[in-house]
């Protein structure tokens, strides 16, 4: 697989967060793993940090065989890649969606690698003007993979130019204005578009319908995360007991990116303590020092639950209200914090807003009350105390 830089390294703020240009650079330049510069909020955020980028370059699985988890999706990709290769055709276009940190970019690279194809990596916000798209597709060769992260952030113009490119492998170039406007249709080589998004609901039907595969990434089970933690420890040459592996996996919020970050943190903590092997007690002490609890919840998660329970009687309450009370951005709450809190059973989304579940009350050491609105909304019966 060859990585082809796109957009001449041009970055907007959001794609700088996603670090796409860096991905291309670190791919070549970094073999060693730097110390993570981590604060508490960063530690459990599924958003990619510069330290993740550098470290992931050495940890990233290269093949579907090496890739742990997402088994349903892997089976489908294995069959389709095999079929496309035997017909010597490009793979049909793929859309990955799901919370951040679950491996959408990694899978795009794995697909390119399995197809023996070059990959061009860019992101929706970088493709604002027609010339951004034209410049990009102009570089494509037959069989190449074009990866567009945050594809829900493509501009309307870019999206419309992309339709014929992905459907009929042609691009319409226009010149002149008004009556003098001319359109020229140019053929493109057959390529595979891989789109990734955390917001499937923001993709137009017209765009979604043009993907042959629309695949949702799921949170990873504890067992799958334990395999990822053990693999990462092995690749980083960190000796770790099985108990320590399980303790880290249990706090990783179903997210490989967070699991790998916790391994680096625990490794550094153990190193500082002079430990040769990371035991469970070292791992737990390291994670406790960052206020990561046994479910992987951090201060912001707990605060979100406290607000629901203590300020709004368990809900239902709208995300904007929670965000205002918490002093956080509602998009961050919705994209980064809430998916895991829902998946882990602490919050339920209802048509009238978010509700804290009985598990959230227990986790925060609060006695659930019989008549609170959240329970009423969920139809939950609490014990009378
Ligand atoms: N590192 C991050 N995600 C991974 C995965 N799904 N399998 C193996 N290693 C990984």
Describe the structure.
The chain has helices spanning 13-18, 20-29, 40-43, 50-59, 71-86, 104-115, 130-138, 156-167, 205-208, 222-235, 242-250, 256-273, 280-289, 299-311, 319-326, 330-343, 358-363, 373-378; strands at 3-5, 94-97, 119-123, 145-149, 170-175, 182-187, 192-197, 213-216, 239-240, 277-278, 347-350, 353-356. Helix 10 (222-235) packs across helix 11 (242-250), helix 10 (222-235) crosses helix 12 and helix 14 (299-311) packs across helix 15 (319-326). Residues 7-38 and 371-385 have low confidence and may be disordered. The chain is α/β, with parallel strands linked by helices. Helix 7 links the parallel strand 3 (119-123) and strand 4. Bound molecules: adenine. Adenine binds next to helix 10 and helix 12.
What is the element string, with H for helices and E for strands?
Answer: EHHHHHEHEHEHEEEHEHEHHEHHHHEEHH
Helical proportion, percent range: 40-55%
The description of the largest β-sheet is: 6 strands, parallel
Which small-molecule ligands are present, each listed once?
adenine
* Cα end-to-end separation: 63 Å
Number of helices: 18
Physical arrangement of strands within the biggest beta sheet: 1-3-4-7-2-8
**What's the alpha carbon Rg, rounded to whole Å?**
23 Å
Task: Give the topology, please.
Blueprint: E1 3-5, H1 13-18, H2 20-29, H3 40-43, H4 50-59, H5 71-86, E2 94-97, H6 104-115, E3 119-123, H7 130-138, E4 145-149, H8 156-167, E5 170-175, E6 182-187, E7 192-197, H9 205-208, E8 213-216, H10 222-235, E9 239-240, H11 242-250, H12 256-273, E10 277-278, H13 280-289, H14 299-311, H15 319-326, H16 330-343, E11 347-350, E12 353-356, H17 358-363, H18 373-378
Parallel strand pairs: 1-3, 2-7, 2-8, 3-4, 4-7, 9-10
Antiparallel strand pairs: 5-6, 11-12
The structure holds adenine.
The site of adenine has 11 residues, from helix 10 and helix 12.
């Amino acid at each position: 697989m060859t990585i082809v830089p796109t957009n001449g390294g041009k970055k907007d703020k959001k794609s700088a967060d996603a670090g796409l240009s860096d991905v291309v650079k670190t791919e070549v330049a970094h073999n060693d793993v730097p110390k993570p510069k981590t604060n508490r909020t960063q530690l459990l955020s599924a958003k990619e940090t510069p330290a993740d980028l550098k470290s992931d370059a050495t940890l990233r699985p290269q093949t579907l065989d090496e890739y742990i988890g997402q088994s349903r999706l892997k089976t489908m990709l294995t069959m389709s890649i095999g079929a496309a290769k035997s017909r010597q055709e490009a793979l049909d276009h793929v859309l990955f969606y799901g919370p951040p940190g679950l491996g959408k970019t990694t899978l795009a690279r794995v697909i390119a690698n399995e197809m023996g194809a070059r990959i061009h990596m860019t992101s929706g916000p970088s493709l604002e003007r027609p010339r951004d798209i034209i410049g990009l597709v102009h570089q494509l060769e037959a069989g190449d993979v074009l990866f567009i992260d945050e594809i829900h952030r493509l501009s309307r113009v870019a999206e419309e130019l992309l339709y014929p490119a992905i459907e009929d492998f042609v691009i319409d170039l226009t010149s002149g204005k008004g009556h003098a406007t001319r359109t020229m249709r140019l053929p493109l080589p057959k390529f595979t578009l891989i789109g990734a998004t955390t917001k499937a609901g923001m993709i137009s039907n017209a765009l979604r319908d043009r993907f042959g595969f629309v695949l949702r990434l799921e949170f990873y089970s504890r067992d799958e995360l334990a395999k990822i933690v053990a693999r990462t420890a092995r690749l980083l040459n960190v000796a770790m007991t099985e108990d320590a592996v399980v303790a880290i996996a249990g706090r990783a919020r179903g997210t490989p990116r967070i699991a790998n970050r916790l391994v680096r943190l625990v490794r550094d903590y153990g190193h500082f303590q002079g430990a040769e092997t990371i035991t469970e007690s070292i791992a737990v002490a390291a994670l406790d020092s960052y206020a990561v609890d046994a479910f992987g919840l951090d201060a912001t998660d707990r605060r979100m639950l406290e607000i629901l329970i203590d300020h709004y009687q368990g809900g239902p309450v709208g995300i904007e209200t929670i965000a205002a009370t918490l002093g956080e951005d509602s998009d961050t709450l919705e994209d980064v914090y809430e998916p895991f809190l829902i998946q882990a059973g602490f919050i339920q989304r209802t048509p009238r807003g978010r509700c804290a579940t009985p598990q959230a009350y227990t986790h925060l050491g609060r006695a659930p009350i019989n008549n609170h609105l959240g329970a009423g909304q969920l139809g939950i019966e609490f014990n009378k105390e």
